[in-house]
Amino acid sequence: QVQLVESGGGLVQAGGSLRLACAASGRTFVGYVMGWFRQAPGKEREFVGAINWSSRTNYVSYYADSVKGRFTISRDNAKNTGYLQMNSLKPEDTAVYFCAARYGSGSRWTGPDEYAYWGQGTQVTVSS
Q: What's the rounded Cα separation, in Å, for the pair 95 and 92?
Protein backbone atom coordinates (compact mmCIF):
# COMPACT_ATOMS: atom_id res chain seq x y z
CA GLN A 1 0.00 0.00 0.00
CA VAL A 2 1.37 3.39 -1.00
CA GLN A 3 1.42 6.04 1.70
CA LEU A 4 2.15 9.73 1.19
CA VAL A 5 2.80 12.20 4.00
CA GLU A 6 3.18 15.94 3.34
CA SER A 7 4.99 18.40 5.55
CA GLY A 8 6.29 21.95 5.41
CA GLY A 9 3.18 24.07 5.16
CA GLY A 10 2.69 27.24 7.16
CA LEU A 11 2.16 30.98 7.11
CA VAL A 12 4.37 33.21 4.97
CA GLN A 13 4.25 36.78 3.74
CA ALA A 14 3.72 37.59 0.10
CA GLY A 15 6.99 37.32 -1.79
CA GLY A 16 8.31 34.70 0.58
CA SER A 17 9.16 31.03 0.06
CA LEU A 18 8.14 27.65 1.44
CA ARG A 19 9.24 24.12 0.66
CA LEU A 20 6.79 21.28 0.97
CA ALA A 21 7.90 17.67 1.24
CA CYS A 22 6.04 14.49 0.37
CA ALA A 23 7.48 11.34 1.90
CA ALA A 24 6.41 8.21 0.05
CA SER A 25 6.47 4.68 1.40
CA GLY A 26 5.17 1.26 0.46
CA ARG A 27 7.15 0.64 -2.71
CA THR A 28 9.85 1.99 -4.99
CA PHE A 29 8.63 4.79 -7.22
CA VAL A 30 10.44 4.27 -10.48
CA GLY A 31 7.73 4.40 -13.13
CA TYR A 32 5.42 6.51 -10.96
CA VAL A 33 4.36 10.13 -11.20
CA MET A 34 4.20 12.37 -8.14
CA GLY A 35 1.80 15.27 -8.55
CA TRP A 36 1.04 18.31 -6.45
CA PHE A 37 -2.44 19.81 -6.22
CA ARG A 38 -4.02 22.55 -4.18
CA GLN A 39 -7.50 23.40 -3.05
CA ALA A 40 -8.65 26.78 -1.81
CA PRO A 41 -11.90 27.19 0.15
CA GLY A 42 -14.92 26.97 -2.14
CA LYS A 43 -12.82 25.99 -5.14
CA GLU A 44 -12.06 22.77 -6.95
CA ARG A 45 -8.79 20.95 -6.48
CA GLU A 46 -6.36 22.20 -9.10
CA PHE A 47 -3.17 20.87 -10.59
CA VAL A 48 0.06 22.58 -9.54
CA GLY A 49 2.77 20.39 -11.05
CA ALA A 50 4.14 16.88 -11.31
CA ILE A 51 7.35 14.96 -11.71
CA ASN A 52 7.80 11.69 -13.54
CA TRP A 53 9.79 9.15 -11.61
CA SER A 54 10.76 7.56 -14.90
CA SER A 55 14.13 6.15 -13.95
CA ARG A 56 16.79 6.38 -11.32
CA THR A 57 18.46 9.34 -12.97
CA ASN A 58 16.06 10.72 -15.55
CA TYR A 59 12.88 12.64 -14.76
CA VAL A 60 10.64 15.29 -16.26
CA SER A 61 8.60 17.88 -14.40
CA TYR A 62 5.76 20.06 -15.65
CA TYR A 63 3.66 22.83 -14.12
CA ALA A 64 0.44 24.77 -14.27
CA ASP A 65 0.81 28.16 -15.94
CA SER A 66 -0.15 29.92 -12.70
CA VAL A 67 2.99 28.67 -10.92
CA LYS A 68 5.45 28.24 -13.77
CA GLY A 69 8.69 30.04 -13.04
CA ARG A 70 7.89 30.33 -9.31
CA PHE A 71 7.46 26.72 -8.20
CA THR A 72 9.91 23.87 -8.68
CA ILE A 73 9.35 20.16 -8.10
CA SER A 74 12.25 17.87 -7.31
CA ARG A 75 12.88 14.48 -5.78
CA ASP A 76 15.35 12.67 -3.56
CA ASN A 77 15.58 9.02 -4.57
CA ALA A 78 17.48 7.97 -1.46
CA LYS A 79 14.74 9.36 0.77
CA ASN A 80 11.82 8.43 -1.53
CA THR A 81 10.67 12.00 -1.08
CA GLY A 82 9.39 14.66 -3.45
CA TYR A 83 9.58 18.39 -2.87
CA LEU A 84 7.63 21.44 -3.96
CA GLN A 85 9.74 24.58 -3.67
CA MET A 86 7.49 27.64 -3.78
CA ASN A 87 9.05 31.06 -4.33
CA SER A 88 7.57 34.51 -4.85
CA LEU A 89 4.40 33.40 -3.12
CA LYS A 90 1.21 35.36 -3.63
CA PRO A 91 -1.96 35.55 -1.52
CA GLU A 92 -3.79 33.65 -4.26
CA ASP A 93 -1.46 30.69 -3.61
CA THR A 94 -3.21 30.19 -0.26
CA ALA A 95 -4.70 26.69 -0.20
CA VAL A 96 -4.36 23.21 1.19
CA TYR A 97 -1.62 21.50 -0.81
CA PHE A 98 -1.75 17.78 -1.54
CA CYS A 99 0.75 15.41 -3.04
CA ALA A 100 -0.52 12.47 -5.06
CA ALA A 101 0.94 9.50 -6.93
CA ARG A 102 0.02 7.21 -9.77
CA TYR A 103 1.72 4.62 -11.90
CA GLY A 104 2.61 5.53 -15.46
CA SER A 105 5.23 8.16 -16.19
CA GLY A 106 4.85 8.20 -19.98
CA SER A 107 2.24 10.95 -20.15
CA ARG A 108 1.30 14.23 -18.53
CA TRP A 109 -1.17 13.64 -15.73
CA THR A 110 -2.94 16.81 -14.58
CA GLY A 111 -6.38 15.72 -13.40
CA PRO A 112 -7.08 14.81 -9.76
CA ASP A 113 -9.09 11.77 -10.91
CA GLU A 114 -5.97 10.41 -12.61
CA TYR A 115 -4.13 9.86 -9.33
CA ALA A 116 -4.69 6.83 -7.12
CA TYR A 117 -2.83 7.78 -3.96
CA TRP A 118 -3.11 10.96 -1.89
CA GLY A 119 -1.52 12.54 1.12
CA GLN A 120 -3.49 14.21 3.88
CA GLY A 121 -2.71 17.77 2.76
CA THR A 122 -0.87 20.66 4.34
CA GLN A 123 -2.08 24.24 4.72
CA VAL A 124 -0.21 27.08 3.02
CA THR A 125 -1.30 30.60 3.89
CA VAL A 126 0.21 33.64 2.18
CA SER A 127 -0.52 36.98 3.81
CA SER A 128 -0.54 40.24 1.88
A: 8
